[in-house]
Amino acid sequence: MWTTTRHVGATRLARAGTASKPNHASLGVRNGGRFVVEARNARPGMRSGRGPPGKKNLHLINRDIRAPEVRLQGENKEALGIMDVEEALDRAREVGLDLVCIQEKADPPVCRLLDYKKFLYDEEKKKKEAKKKSAAGRVEVKELKLRPNTDVHDYQVRLRSAQKFLSKGDKVKINIQFRGREMEFKNIGQEICEKFIADLGDSAVVEGKIRMEGRNMLMFLAPSKT
Length: 226
What we know:
35% strand, 5-stranded mixed beta sheet, alpha+beta
């Protein structure tokens, strides 16, 4: 015999004379004049998600895994064999870890016993380290602009900047800009470039030829390999 009791806006169905179990409660919900009974199979100590709050997990974990059986790996990637997903969840609970699906499209899906929060932290740390290495290996081209009438102080400032950039492994683009009648004094731009090369000494090598592009005289410098 079934009895119907009201409970916070929902209708709970329970067999008369028996107490409902907290981990297998059934809720009856009105749907078009009939009851739809939904079974809750939550296990004590086992929840569907343990990632950062408010964020969707990147992997299927614990009760989110719907496959009937999985290929299980231990925390150190050791093979534990193919087994029913319920057995895999039991093993995860026994060792206090999460069951994480790492290859969802495999047949059967490959799952591993992990501390999911620690796993996410380690993965994020690896990404940051890889990003740093990528940035360190990337050569940038730093542009320094001069004019034919650049004074000694400004020239020295740009020279020190070039030395700093080259010491960090970056390349330097010297751009001497001509305006109006200054185009008649391209030889001054050539002299500035040659002085730059001499002042930098063995710390830099010239890449290609000094050339004109419109009203700009360009020279590219790279760190010396010696």
